[in-house]
Specification:
Blueprint: H1 2-16, H2 19-30, H3 34-62, H4 64-84, H5 90-100, H6 106-117, H7 122-129, H8 134-150, H9 153-173, E1 182-183, H10 187-195, H11 198-217, H12 221-229, H13 233-249, H14 251-261, H15 264-281, H16 287-316, H17 322-351, H18 355-377, E2 392-393
Antiparallel strand pairs: 1-2
Helix pairs in contact: 1-4, 1-6, 1-8, 1-9, 2-3, 2-8, 2-12, 2-13, 3-4, 3-5, 3-6, 3-17, 4-5, 4-6, 4-9, 6-7, 6-17, 7-14, 7-16, 8-13, 11-16, 11-17, 11-18, 12-13, 13-16, 14-16, 15-16, 15-18, 17-18
Length: 395
Amino acid sequence: MLALALAGYLLTTWAWSLLAPLAPLLGDSLSLTPIMQAMVVALPVVVGALSRIPAGALSDRFGARTAFLTIIVMTIVALLVLAYAGRQSAQALLGASVLLGVAGGTFAAAVPFVSGWFPERRGLAIGILGLGLCGSAVGGVTAVRLAEAYGMKAPFLATALTLALLGLLVAVTMRDAPHAPRAATGIGAGLIAAMRLPVTRKALLWYAVGFAIFVASSTALPVYLDHAYHLPAARSGDVMAGFVLLAVLTRPLGGWLADHFGPARPLVLGYAAALAVLVVQAWTPPLPVLLGLVLPVLAVTMGMTSTAVLAQVSGTAPPVLVGLITGLISAAGGLTGFATPLMLAASYQRTGTYGPGYAVLAAAAALALTTALRTMREPQPSPSRSPSPVTTSEP
Protein backbone atom coordinates (compact mmCIF):
# COMPACT_ATOMS: atom_id res chain seq x y z
CA MET A 1 0.00 0.00 0.00
CA LEU A 2 2.88 2.38 0.74
CA ALA A 3 4.42 1.62 -2.65
CA LEU A 4 1.09 2.22 -4.38
CA ALA A 5 0.58 5.55 -2.61
CA LEU A 6 4.14 6.53 -3.50
CA ALA A 7 3.58 5.68 -7.17
CA GLY A 8 0.35 7.67 -7.21
CA TYR A 9 1.98 10.71 -5.67
CA LEU A 10 4.99 10.48 -7.99
CA LEU A 11 2.99 10.23 -11.22
CA THR A 12 0.47 12.94 -10.36
CA THR A 13 3.33 15.23 -9.29
CA TRP A 14 5.00 14.53 -12.63
CA ALA A 15 1.84 15.78 -14.32
CA TRP A 16 1.47 18.71 -11.90
CA SER A 17 4.98 20.02 -12.62
CA LEU A 18 5.04 19.74 -16.42
CA LEU A 19 4.40 23.40 -17.15
CA ALA A 20 7.30 24.79 -15.10
CA PRO A 21 10.18 23.54 -17.33
CA LEU A 22 8.13 24.25 -20.47
CA ALA A 23 7.33 27.84 -19.43
CA PRO A 24 10.30 29.44 -21.24
CA LEU A 25 9.45 27.62 -24.49
CA LEU A 26 5.76 28.45 -24.20
CA GLY A 27 6.63 32.02 -23.30
CA ASP A 28 8.67 32.41 -26.49
CA SER A 29 6.05 30.83 -28.75
CA LEU A 30 3.16 32.85 -27.31
CA SER A 31 5.15 36.05 -26.52
CA LEU A 32 4.26 35.91 -22.84
CA THR A 33 5.40 38.66 -20.45
CA PRO A 34 7.40 37.68 -17.34
CA ILE A 35 4.23 38.06 -15.25
CA MET A 36 2.25 35.78 -17.59
CA GLN A 37 5.05 33.18 -17.53
CA ALA A 38 4.92 33.33 -13.75
CA MET A 39 1.14 32.83 -13.89
CA VAL A 40 1.57 29.69 -15.98
CA VAL A 41 3.91 28.34 -13.30
CA ALA A 42 1.92 29.57 -10.30
CA LEU A 43 -1.65 28.64 -11.25
CA PRO A 44 -1.17 24.85 -11.05
CA VAL A 45 0.56 25.35 -7.70
CA VAL A 46 -2.26 27.30 -6.06
CA VAL A 47 -5.07 25.22 -7.60
CA GLY A 48 -3.31 22.02 -6.62
CA ALA A 49 -2.80 23.17 -3.07
CA LEU A 50 -6.39 24.37 -2.68
CA SER A 51 -7.68 21.10 -4.13
CA ARG A 52 -5.98 19.30 -1.25
CA ILE A 53 -8.74 20.47 1.11
CA PRO A 54 -11.53 18.54 -0.68
CA ALA A 55 -9.10 15.73 -1.53
CA GLY A 56 -8.18 15.28 2.14
CA ALA A 57 -11.82 15.48 3.20
CA LEU A 58 -12.76 12.96 0.50
CA SER A 59 -10.11 10.56 1.76
CA ASP A 60 -11.22 11.00 5.39
CA ARG A 61 -14.86 10.37 4.46
CA PHE A 62 -14.78 7.73 1.70
CA GLY A 63 -11.24 6.33 1.71
CA ALA A 64 -8.10 6.91 -0.35
CA ARG A 65 -9.15 4.74 -3.29
CA THR A 66 -12.07 7.02 -4.18
CA ALA A 67 -9.93 10.14 -3.73
CA PHE A 68 -7.07 8.75 -5.85
CA LEU A 69 -9.31 7.68 -8.73
CA THR A 70 -11.11 11.02 -8.80
CA ILE A 71 -7.84 12.95 -8.99
CA ILE A 72 -6.35 10.66 -11.64
CA VAL A 73 -9.35 10.97 -13.95
CA MET A 74 -9.46 14.78 -13.64
CA THR A 75 -5.71 15.03 -14.24
CA ILE A 76 -5.91 12.96 -17.42
CA VAL A 77 -8.63 15.29 -18.71
CA ALA A 78 -6.42 18.29 -17.94
CA LEU A 79 -3.44 16.78 -19.78
CA LEU A 80 -5.51 16.10 -22.87
CA VAL A 81 -6.77 19.69 -22.87
CA LEU A 82 -3.18 20.93 -22.62
CA ALA A 83 -2.05 18.66 -25.45
CA TYR A 84 -4.71 19.73 -27.92
CA ALA A 85 -5.85 23.21 -26.88
CA GLY A 86 -3.38 24.67 -24.39
CA ARG A 87 -0.95 25.93 -27.04
CA GLN A 88 -3.45 27.87 -29.14
CA SER A 89 -3.42 31.10 -27.12
CA ALA A 90 -2.24 32.57 -23.84
CA GLN A 91 -5.79 32.45 -22.50
CA ALA A 92 -6.17 28.76 -23.36
CA LEU A 93 -2.81 27.98 -21.76
CA LEU A 94 -3.75 29.75 -18.53
CA GLY A 95 -7.09 27.97 -18.43
CA ALA A 96 -5.48 24.59 -18.98
CA SER A 97 -2.89 25.29 -16.29
CA VAL A 98 -5.78 25.74 -13.83
CA LEU A 99 -7.13 22.30 -14.77
CA LEU A 100 -3.71 20.72 -14.33
CA GLY A 101 -3.57 21.95 -10.75
CA VAL A 102 -6.03 19.21 -9.71
CA ALA A 103 -3.11 16.76 -9.79
CA GLY A 104 -1.66 18.47 -6.73
CA GLY A 105 -4.42 17.14 -4.47
CA THR A 106 -3.01 13.62 -4.23
CA PHE A 107 -0.77 14.24 -1.24
CA ALA A 108 -3.64 15.16 1.10
CA ALA A 109 -5.37 11.90 0.23
CA ALA A 110 -2.18 9.88 0.65
CA VAL A 111 -1.03 11.18 4.08
CA PRO A 112 -3.97 9.81 6.15
CA PHE A 113 -3.89 6.62 4.07
CA VAL A 114 -0.21 5.99 4.88
CA SER A 115 -0.62 7.10 8.51
CA GLY A 116 -3.33 4.48 8.96
CA TRP A 117 -1.03 1.69 7.79
CA PHE A 118 1.97 2.87 9.90
CA PRO A 119 0.68 4.16 13.27
CA GLU A 120 4.01 3.59 15.05
CA ARG A 121 6.39 4.88 12.36
CA ARG A 122 4.28 7.48 10.65
CA GLY A 123 7.07 10.07 10.37
CA LEU A 124 9.32 7.74 8.39
CA ALA A 125 6.40 6.41 6.34
CA ILE A 126 5.29 9.94 5.40
CA GLY A 127 8.91 10.74 4.54
CA ILE A 128 9.02 7.76 2.18
CA LEU A 129 5.72 8.88 0.67
CA GLY A 130 7.31 12.29 0.16
CA LEU A 131 9.80 10.69 -2.20
CA GLY A 132 6.98 10.86 -4.73
CA LEU A 133 7.88 14.49 -5.24
CA CYS A 134 10.59 13.06 -7.49
CA GLY A 135 7.84 13.34 -10.08
CA SER A 136 8.84 16.99 -10.38
CA ALA A 137 12.36 15.87 -11.24
CA VAL A 138 10.97 13.53 -13.89
CA GLY A 139 9.08 16.43 -15.40
CA GLY A 140 12.10 18.70 -15.23
CA VAL A 141 14.35 16.20 -16.99
CA THR A 142 11.95 14.90 -19.63
CA ALA A 143 9.48 17.67 -20.50
CA VAL A 144 11.71 19.91 -22.63
CA ARG A 145 13.50 16.97 -24.26
CA LEU A 146 10.23 15.25 -25.20
CA ALA A 147 8.82 18.50 -26.56
CA GLU A 148 11.94 19.20 -28.65
CA ALA A 149 12.12 15.65 -29.98
CA TYR A 150 8.45 14.83 -30.61
CA GLY A 151 6.52 18.09 -30.38
CA MET A 152 4.78 19.97 -27.58
CA LYS A 153 2.02 17.37 -27.27
CA ALA A 154 4.41 14.58 -26.31
CA PRO A 155 5.02 15.42 -22.61
CA PHE A 156 1.29 15.71 -21.91
CA LEU A 157 0.24 12.58 -23.79
CA ALA A 158 3.01 10.41 -22.30
CA THR A 159 2.00 11.46 -18.79
CA ALA A 160 -1.71 10.89 -19.48
CA LEU A 161 -1.04 7.33 -20.67
CA THR A 162 1.05 6.55 -17.59
CA LEU A 163 -1.67 7.90 -15.30
CA ALA A 164 -4.30 5.77 -17.03
CA LEU A 165 -2.28 2.64 -16.20
CA LEU A 166 -1.92 3.82 -12.60
CA GLY A 167 -5.68 4.35 -12.33
CA LEU A 168 -6.28 0.76 -13.34
CA LEU A 169 -3.83 -0.47 -10.69
CA VAL A 170 -5.43 1.70 -7.98
CA ALA A 171 -8.92 0.48 -8.85
CA VAL A 172 -7.86 -3.17 -8.55
CA THR A 173 -5.49 -3.18 -5.54
CA MET A 174 -5.82 -0.15 -3.23
CA ARG A 175 -7.51 -0.62 0.17
CA ASP A 176 -7.49 1.34 3.44
CA ALA A 177 -5.95 0.09 6.67
CA PRO A 178 -8.16 -2.35 8.64
CA HIS A 179 -10.60 -0.58 10.98
CA ALA A 180 -9.55 2.83 9.71
CA PRO A 181 -12.00 5.41 11.10
CA ARG A 182 -14.03 7.48 8.67
CA ALA A 183 -15.43 10.95 9.17
CA ALA A 184 -19.21 10.82 9.26
CA THR A 185 -19.92 14.55 8.91
CA GLY A 186 -19.42 17.12 6.20
CA ILE A 187 -16.38 19.22 5.40
CA GLY A 188 -17.77 22.27 7.20
CA ALA A 189 -17.88 20.61 10.62
CA GLY A 190 -14.46 19.12 9.99
CA LEU A 191 -12.97 22.51 9.17
CA ILE A 192 -14.33 24.02 12.39
CA ALA A 193 -12.93 21.13 14.46
CA ALA A 194 -9.57 21.29 12.68
CA MET A 195 -9.09 25.03 13.16
CA ARG A 196 -9.67 24.66 16.90
CA LEU A 197 -6.53 22.54 17.20
CA PRO A 198 -3.26 24.37 18.05
CA VAL A 199 -1.30 22.01 15.80
CA THR A 200 -3.32 23.20 12.81
CA ARG A 201 -2.51 26.86 13.36
CA LYS A 202 1.20 26.23 13.86
CA ALA A 203 1.41 23.90 10.87
CA LEU A 204 -0.30 26.50 8.67
CA LEU A 205 2.58 28.93 9.21
CA TRP A 206 5.38 26.38 8.92
CA TYR A 207 4.07 24.75 5.77
CA ALA A 208 3.21 28.06 4.09
CA VAL A 209 6.74 29.40 4.57
CA GLY A 210 8.40 26.13 3.58
CA PHE A 211 6.29 25.75 0.47
CA ALA A 212 7.01 29.30 -0.64
CA ILE A 213 10.75 28.64 -0.38
CA PHE A 214 10.36 25.31 -2.17
CA VAL A 215 8.39 26.84 -5.06
CA ALA A 216 10.97 29.62 -5.44
CA SER A 217 13.70 26.97 -5.75
CA SER A 218 11.85 24.45 -7.92
CA THR A 219 8.87 25.38 -10.09
CA ALA A 220 9.94 29.04 -10.37
CA LEU A 221 13.59 28.12 -10.86
CA PRO A 222 13.77 27.79 -14.69
CA VAL A 223 12.44 31.31 -15.26
CA TYR A 224 14.74 32.67 -12.51
CA LEU A 225 17.80 30.98 -14.02
CA ASP A 226 16.86 32.23 -17.48
CA HIS A 227 16.56 35.86 -16.40
CA ALA A 228 19.26 36.07 -13.73
CA TYR A 229 21.90 33.74 -15.18
CA HIS A 230 20.81 33.22 -18.85
CA LEU A 231 20.91 29.42 -18.62
CA PRO A 232 19.40 27.42 -21.52
CA ALA A 233 15.96 25.86 -20.86
CA ALA A 234 17.24 22.28 -20.87
CA ARG A 235 19.99 23.00 -18.33
CA SER A 236 17.58 24.96 -16.13
CA GLY A 237 15.30 21.93 -16.16
CA ASP A 238 18.22 19.77 -15.04
CA VAL A 239 18.98 22.14 -12.15
CA MET A 240 15.31 22.10 -11.12
CA ALA A 241 15.30 18.31 -11.26
CA GLY A 242 18.45 18.10 -9.14
CA PHE A 243 16.97 20.42 -6.51
CA VAL A 244 13.73 18.44 -6.28
CA LEU A 245 15.55 15.11 -6.19
CA LEU A 246 17.77 16.20 -3.29
CA ALA A 247 14.79 17.69 -1.43
CA VAL A 248 12.70 14.55 -1.68
CA LEU A 249 15.58 12.24 -0.74
CA THR A 250 15.91 14.09 2.57
CA ARG A 251 12.20 13.78 3.40
CA PRO A 252 12.63 10.36 5.08
CA LEU A 253 15.45 11.88 7.15
CA GLY A 254 13.08 14.58 8.36
CA GLY A 255 10.51 11.95 9.27
CA TRP A 256 13.07 9.84 11.13
CA LEU A 257 14.28 12.87 13.08
CA ALA A 258 10.70 13.79 13.94
CA ASP A 259 9.98 10.24 15.17
CA HIS A 260 13.06 10.17 17.41
CA PHE A 261 13.54 13.79 18.57
CA GLY A 262 10.19 15.45 17.97
CA PRO A 263 9.24 17.58 14.96
CA ALA A 264 10.35 20.91 16.46
CA ARG A 265 14.10 20.17 16.30
CA PRO A 266 14.29 19.50 12.54
CA LEU A 267 12.09 22.56 12.01
CA VAL A 268 14.50 24.78 13.94
CA LEU A 269 17.52 23.34 12.16
CA GLY A 270 15.91 23.62 8.75
CA TYR A 271 14.65 27.18 8.99
CA ALA A 272 17.89 28.45 10.53
CA ALA A 273 19.93 27.08 7.63
CA ALA A 274 17.38 28.31 5.07
CA LEU A 275 17.50 31.82 6.54
CA ALA A 276 21.28 31.94 6.19
CA VAL A 277 21.42 30.92 2.52
CA LEU A 278 18.39 33.02 1.50
CA VAL A 279 20.28 36.08 2.70
CA VAL A 280 23.12 35.03 0.40
CA GLN A 281 20.74 34.48 -2.52
CA ALA A 282 19.19 37.92 -2.06
CA TRP A 283 22.53 39.36 -3.24
CA THR A 284 22.47 37.26 -6.47
CA PRO A 285 25.62 35.24 -5.78
CA PRO A 286 27.83 33.85 -8.58
CA LEU A 287 26.39 30.79 -10.30
CA PRO A 288 28.83 28.30 -8.65
CA VAL A 289 27.78 29.57 -5.20
CA LEU A 290 24.11 29.27 -6.12
CA LEU A 291 24.49 25.74 -7.49
CA GLY A 292 27.04 24.48 -4.97
CA LEU A 293 25.78 26.02 -1.73
CA VAL A 294 22.46 27.88 -1.78
CA LEU A 295 20.27 25.42 -3.67
CA PRO A 296 21.63 22.25 -2.00
CA VAL A 297 21.11 23.72 1.49
CA LEU A 298 17.58 24.82 0.63
CA ALA A 299 16.81 21.40 -0.85
CA VAL A 300 17.94 19.51 2.26
CA THR A 301 16.26 21.83 4.74
CA MET A 302 12.94 22.07 2.92
CA GLY A 303 12.83 18.29 2.53
CA MET A 304 13.35 17.84 6.26
CA THR A 305 10.92 20.50 7.42
CA SER A 306 8.06 19.45 5.15
CA THR A 307 8.02 15.95 6.63
CA ALA A 308 8.47 17.22 10.18
CA VAL A 309 5.35 19.38 9.87
CA LEU A 310 3.26 16.48 8.56
CA ALA A 311 4.61 14.13 11.23
CA GLN A 312 3.47 16.63 13.87
CA VAL A 313 -0.01 16.77 12.33
CA SER A 314 -0.48 13.02 11.89
CA GLY A 315 0.93 12.29 15.35
CA THR A 316 -1.20 14.72 17.39
CA ALA A 317 -4.40 15.34 15.41
CA PRO A 318 -7.40 12.97 15.54
CA PRO A 319 -7.12 10.36 12.76
CA VAL A 320 -10.35 11.40 11.01
CA LEU A 321 -9.01 14.96 10.60
CA VAL A 322 -5.49 14.19 9.34
CA GLY A 323 -6.46 14.38 5.68
CA LEU A 324 -8.42 17.59 6.10
CA ILE A 325 -5.68 19.28 8.15
CA THR A 326 -3.10 18.19 5.58
CA GLY A 327 -5.31 19.79 2.95
CA LEU A 328 -5.65 22.98 4.97
CA ILE A 329 -1.94 23.48 5.51
CA SER A 330 -1.28 22.58 1.88
CA ALA A 331 -3.77 25.22 0.83
CA ALA A 332 -1.91 27.77 2.92
CA GLY A 333 1.25 26.63 1.18
CA GLY A 334 -0.51 26.99 -2.14
CA LEU A 335 -1.39 30.60 -1.46
CA THR A 336 2.22 31.46 -0.67
CA GLY A 337 3.37 29.23 -3.52
CA PHE A 338 1.08 31.11 -5.89
CA ALA A 339 2.31 34.47 -4.65
CA THR A 340 6.01 33.58 -4.68
CA PRO A 341 6.62 33.39 -8.47
CA LEU A 342 4.56 36.55 -8.93
CA MET A 343 6.50 38.34 -6.19
CA LEU A 344 9.82 37.28 -7.73
CA ALA A 345 8.65 38.33 -11.20
CA ALA A 346 7.51 41.72 -9.88
CA SER A 347 10.85 42.17 -8.15
CA TYR A 348 12.69 41.48 -11.40
CA GLN A 349 10.36 43.60 -13.52
CA ARG A 350 10.59 46.64 -11.21
CA THR A 351 14.24 46.50 -10.11
CA GLY A 352 15.99 44.28 -12.66
CA THR A 353 16.99 41.86 -9.87
CA TYR A 354 15.38 39.13 -7.78
CA GLY A 355 17.10 40.33 -4.59
CA PRO A 356 14.11 42.04 -2.92
CA GLY A 357 11.97 38.97 -3.51
CA TYR A 358 14.47 36.67 -1.83
CA ALA A 359 14.81 39.13 1.05
CA VAL A 360 11.07 38.69 1.69
CA LEU A 361 11.56 34.90 1.73
CA ALA A 362 14.41 35.31 4.22
CA ALA A 363 12.14 37.33 6.52
CA ALA A 364 9.48 34.60 6.29
CA ALA A 365 12.08 31.97 7.22
CA ALA A 366 13.04 34.06 10.26
CA LEU A 367 9.39 34.13 11.39
CA ALA A 368 9.05 30.36 11.00
CA LEU A 369 12.32 29.86 12.90
CA THR A 370 11.10 32.01 15.80
CA THR A 371 7.86 30.03 16.09
CA ALA A 372 9.65 26.69 15.90
CA LEU A 373 12.06 27.76 18.66
CA ARG A 374 9.14 28.62 20.92
CA THR A 375 7.50 25.28 20.18
CA MET A 376 10.68 23.37 20.96
CA ARG A 377 10.78 24.97 24.43
CA GLU A 378 7.17 24.04 25.17
CA PRO A 379 6.08 20.66 26.61
CA GLN A 380 5.19 18.47 23.64
CA PRO A 381 1.76 16.79 23.65
CA SER A 382 1.63 13.03 23.39
CA PRO A 383 0.23 11.63 20.15
CA SER A 384 -3.55 11.55 20.19
CA ARG A 385 -5.29 8.64 18.59
CA SER A 386 -8.63 9.33 20.22
CA PRO A 387 -11.68 10.19 18.13
CA SER A 388 -12.15 13.81 17.17
CA PRO A 389 -15.07 16.01 18.09
CA VAL A 390 -16.41 15.06 14.66
CA THR A 391 -18.53 11.92 14.72
CA THR A 392 -16.66 8.95 13.29
CA SER A 393 -17.53 5.60 11.86
CA GLU A 394 -15.62 2.58 10.67
CA PRO A 395 -16.02 1.06 7.21
